[in-house]
Predict the structure.
Amino acid sequence: MAAPGALEPAAGSVPGTKVELTVSCRNLLDMDTFSKSDPVVVLFVQVSGSSEWKEFGRTEVIDNTLNPDFVRKFVLDYYFEEKQNLRFDVYNVDSKSCSALKQDFLGQAFVALGEVIGSQRGRLERPLTGVPGKRCGTILLLAEELSNCRDIVTMQLCANKLDKKDFFGKSDPFLVFYRSNEDGTFTICHKTEVVKNTLNPVWQPFTIPVRALCNGDYDRTVKIDVYDWDRDGSHDFIGEFATSYRELSRAQSQFTVYEVLNPRKKCKKKKYVNSGTVTLLSFSVESEFTFVDYIRGGTQLNFTVAIDFTASNGLPSQPTSLHYASPYQLSAYALALKAVGEIIQDYDSDKLFPAYGFGAKVPPDGKISHQFPLNNNVENPSCAGIEGVLESYLQSLRTVQLYGPTNFAPVINQVAGTAAQVTDGSQYHVLLIITDGVISDMLQTKEAIVTASSLPMSIIIVGVGPAEFEAMEELDGDEVRLSSRGRYAERDIVQFVPFRDYVDDSGNQVLSMARLAKDVLAEIPEQLLSYMKTRDIKPRRADP
């Protein structure tokens, strides 16, 4: 039996947020003759990019109940950018065998971890199915992010009458902070700036995570050394003092003064008092919020799609076209749309997605449009779910004439206009642009992105086909911050990837989609957090 623990992340990936799942069931099938069922829940996790399921863990068995609330939790690593499919099988235990096959099957439920986190208050109820002709009851899942001391401290210190160390001047003092380890050793965790030529320095306020300062142990020793800076790196030791997070935090209501002591001087000089004092001027604590905090607080992700209908894609009826879909295989456009959309839709409560095309002549008058609704409804361009978007996309291929040029700015400005209407953190917009080539309105697009960078939105660009995409790399802004007419983007909001980098050599489309989704969505949580932070928007508290 697999012990409940953290889900193994993919090789090379960054560990995700730890999420704890609590499981309950209601109105289970009663399989015992003289008593109620003795249920257990077995969690299986789908291996990324395959149809294989692996057992992850089991709850305890609760005797004689049809409405169990299990105590044993499942702790998983959560990755926003991955579709993490879970399967919950419920059994009635009527033998001592560990094999689930030898127990009575009470039903099962399939769910993505993102669905649980994206549901209201992180609470999701699903019907159990799998026993023909029977109502199997429901399973209730509650997702909670595990606390790992996410507070951040901001503090400011000054010193008075420090020892003079420089022959021709005063000292150039700076502070070095160390946290103590379990084995009694110390690890450096912060250095202040150097304040030149003074014995009474005032250092700038600085911030540091509480876990870096004391590993979340408020009484653990924090050692602070005071040095005189020397250009050659042989800094002179002035003295030291020790404190703790708990002691520092008391300074919120009063100044705290520490004596700086030099042990060697203290041993040599009988009249030695100290080498100066350090005063804690201010100390404040605030929480470092995560993507999950905002989602659980009610922030909705609004997904919009824009698809390239320019003539360079080739005639959709021809197998060489990037829009060509055979009866056996989706086109590159449809693959990219499904890969990204199927993950984002878990975080959108109404599952209605505005979808546009650009670069085509549209009926009835054959005018070129760069933001025509795929569902042909100008008043309401939203499609029901990703399947609805795909359906409208395929319908548009049959009714419009592929043309040109490739203009991004109109659809970016369209989504930016919507994003500008609600900027309180309750809505965040993600625009997916799928294109085959060289952009025609580069200057206007850069201007649109710079303007959008101050709004609650991100842009994902997926390039399909064999073209070179140098211009897209510039829009991505990872190396150089994007600018337009002297204005710089407030945040990096664009992520570009060429689809060809994710195509599986064996032709496994599921694996290609999983790889693509993982990379293009990996930056969304940080981009959302950067918006919230620059606007000082805190997550709303989820209702208890």
